[in-house]
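Collaborator request, handled under Task 6.
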Amino acid sequence: MIKGLSEIRRLPRIGKIHLGVKDETNKGAKYPRAVDYFVVKLDENTPESSVNAFKSIYGDRPKELDIIFPSDDPNRFFPQWLKRYGGGKLLCKGDGETAQQVDAQTGEIKEIPCLYMECPHYKKKHCKSVGNLKFLIQGIPGGVWQIDTSSYYSIVNINSAIDIIKSANGGHIAGIPLKLVRNPIKVTADGKPKTIYVLNLYQPQPQPTKEEPKTENSGVDGEPELPDSDDLPEDLFPDDEPEPEPVEQVKNTSEEQTENNTVPNVSEYEPNFNDCLIVQSIAYELINGKKFARIEVCDTNGENGRVVYPKDPRPIIKAGQYAVLKDCKITKMGERDVLESYEVLGQKEAM
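Structure tokens returned to the collaborator:
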């Protein structure tokens, strides 16, 4: 036996689970659309064998999963970092105090102070908080699955649930059958209520134990290594908006708006997607004797309609009804929403 080598065990990642899907405009541009279920699809992270195994148990649109964590250490199965990507690579990773930054010229990794919310990259939404949840799915052997999220609510929910479950099980969570679900909550965005779907975790039938909790460092040595989680997340939502404040929990319904709906100034869009709006109608309105374009828009699910006044309406007028707009920056001017800037992706089929 070789000390430092022979005792190492490693669990591979056999698939990624997504919280939204990608739709396509008539020009082939992709934009995000929210769903209220877990998505498993064939891609570079998930082979066909894993897709088939998952769907044989859960079908196409499951809203809850039976999972097990392979470790008692949340730092192993749910690492959370401030991350900045560029060119498909991780450029910087920090914890709010210190960060590891890659020198773009030399590739050298340097330790720098992490400025967190004061960092220019964070303010520009290039850096964001990312949680990578890794777990085993009961009935699917072979390795761990991973969900990437930058949702404030999902990260807080999972962290809170982990503490509760460990407290009820003598400091343990590894090997305990758990339920991973998507729950609806109501939030306020731009002064309007909306429903989003967030991750949550619970133990179906917890068994109280009198066993002493483990110390911070126990349960780490001898546990299997989990796959690296610094690869580029494909579909973290949100992309570039502030967090809405929660209003209340709501009853679960598939007809409600989901976590990843694309409405400006709402942050529940899990990195690499921009919030999108669909043009419903184009009209003109006289304001103080001047004619302004009045555009009715909605999110990609056809919900949350609103009226915006674009500073430059020409690209929208040229694209016409059902144009898909991304990178929408909306500001308030009195009682009106002004569309400061945007990009036309193409057109969506009539809703």
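The cover message to the collaborator said: "The domain at 275-351 is CATH 2.40.50 (OB fold (Dihydrolipoamide Acetyltransferase, E2P)). DSSP finds five helices and 18 strands in the chain. Please let us know whether this matches your experimental observations."
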